[in-house]
Amino acid sequence: MEKLLLHAFKIADVYSDGHFTLLKFTGNFRADFFTPIDRDDINKMPEGKTPEEAISNAFQKIENKLAIGNGVFSQNEIIEISNTKDVVRLETRVFIYQKTIILLDDDYDKRVIEWVGNLPESIRKNLVIANEHEGSLYLYWRYSVPEEYSQEKIVDVPDDQWTISRSELVC
C-alpha cells in the first residue's frame, strides 16, 4: 500500500499540481487526482472495495482520459498540435507518445517530444513520464533508472543541452 501511495503522490505532483484524494466510505473507497467540491465530484471518482483497488482505478482513469482526450499522436502531429493557439488557450499540456506521458510546461518546448522519440526503444519502453521545465528534465521510470539518464546527467537536445534534475522510479 505504501508503494502505491508514493506512486500516486509522484503522479499527482506532475499530473494534477499535487492534488490526490482518497476517500473511505462504509462500503467502498474512492480515489482521484483532484479535490472534490461536492457529491457529484465524489460520485465521478473511481471506486474500489479496497484503497488499492480505488487507487489503481484512478490510475486507469488517467490513462483513459489521456488516450481519449489527447489521442495517441505521431511525433509530427504532437509538434503540430503544440504549435496551435487552441492548445495553448486550452492549456492542453499532456500527451501520450510512444507509450510515454509527456508533460509540456508553459513555454511548450516541443523538443522534449523529439528527445523521447529519439530514445532507443529499449530505454523508451521503460520511461513513464518525461517533463521538461526551463532546461531541466524530470523523468519517471517503470523498472529501473538507466545510468545514462540518471539525475544530474546532461542530455543533448536540438540546439541545446538539458540537465536531468530528477530521474527516479514511479513505483
Number of helices: 7
Radius of gyration: 17 Å
Mass-distribution shape: elongated
Strand content: 25-35%
Read across the widest sheet, the strand sequence of neighbours is 4-5-6-7-9-8
Query: Main sheet?
Result: 6 strands, mixed
Helix content: 25-40%
- Poorly predicted runs are 66-75, 81-92
* C-alpha termini separation: 11 Å
The total number of structural domains is 2
User: Which class do the helix and strand fractions yield?
Assistant: alpha+beta
Quantity of strands, as a count: 9
Calculate the mean pLDDT score and round it.
Answer: 78
Q: Report the order of strands and helices.
A: HEEHEHHHEEHHEEEE
Account of the 3D structure:
With 171 residues, the chain is α+β, with helices and mostly antiparallel strands. It folds into two domains: 2-69, no CATH class; 75-169, no CATH class. 39% of the residues lie in helices and 26% in strands. A six-stranded mixed β-sheet has the order 4-5-6-7-9-8. Strands 1-2-3 form a three-stranded antiparallel β-sheet. A hairpin with a 2-residue loop joins β6 and β7. The longest helix has 20 residues, at 51-70.
